[in-house]
Amino acid sequence: MTVIEPTLVFERELLARHPLVIACDEVGRGALAGPVAIGAAVLGEVEIEAGVPNGLRDSKLVAERRRADVRDRARGWVSASAIGWSSAAEIDEIGIMRAMGNAALRALADLRGQGVEVDDAIVLLDGNHDYITPTADPGAPVIVRVKADRDCASASAASIIAKVARDEVMTELHPTHPAYEWHRNKGYASEVHRAAIRAHGLSAHHRASWAIADAPTLW
C-alpha cells in the first residue's frame, strides 16, 4: 500500500492570508463507547520553515507501537496544541455533531488560555462539514478539507495528538470494565466488544442513544 506523505503545501497557502493555522481533527466519532476528542495543532511561519517531523502521518496510518513517539515529535513541532473532549453522556444528550462542535470549541478555548491569538487564525478542519460554526462562533474562520488528516501535516499532527490521548483514556477505563476489552478496541465495535455488550449490557461510558446492536464491526 502506498502511504501518502503529508505536506505543508495547503498550510503555506493559508498562511499567505492568515498569521496562524489551527488544524483540528476528531478521534472517536464512530466508537460505541468513550468520549470523542478533537485535537488542535497551531502552526505559523516558524513551524512551516522547520518542515514536517519524521514519521508524521494521519494517526490511522501510524502503527500503535509508534504513535506515542510520533505524538511527541508532533507536539514538539507545533507552536501549541490542545484537546477538547465530549463525553458519551453529552453525545447522547445533544448528538455527535454538536458534541464534536463543543469539543472543538473547548480545544480552541484551551489554546486561548495558552496565549494563542485564535481570532487571528484560520481553522483548518478535516472532513467535508463545518461542525464548529453552527455550534457557536469560534472567533476565527473555518475551512474544511477532505482528507486533511492525510494530506496536511498540521491536521496529521492534530490527529495523532488526539488519538494517543483518547487511546490512553480508554486503556485507563479498561480495568473497571474488563469484559469490553477497551484496552484493545478503544471503544470501537470489535466482535469481543459487541459480544460483551450482549452479555453484560451497556456501561455508563457507552453511547446509549446509538443503535449499538446494529453497529458494524470495525475491529
From TrEMBL:
This is Ribonuclease. The lineage of its organism: Bacteria, Bacillati, Actinomycetota, Actinomycetes, Micrococcales. It comes from the Bacteria. It is found in: Cytoplasm. NCBIfam families: PRK00015.1-3. Its cofactor is Mn(2+); Mg(2+). GO terms for molecular function: metal ion binding; RNA binding; RNA-DNA hybrid ribonuclease activity. GO terms for biological process: DNA replication, removal of RNA primer; mismatch repair. PANTHER family: RIBONUCLEASE H2 SUBUNIT A (PTHR10954), RIBONUCLEASE HII (PTHR10954:SF18). Endonuclease that specifically degrades the RNA of RNA-DNA hybrids. A divalent metal cation binds at residues 25-26, 126. It catalyses: Endonucleolytic cleavage to 5'-phosphomonoester. Belongs to the RNase HII family. The gene is rnhB. It comes from Microbacterium ginsengisoli.
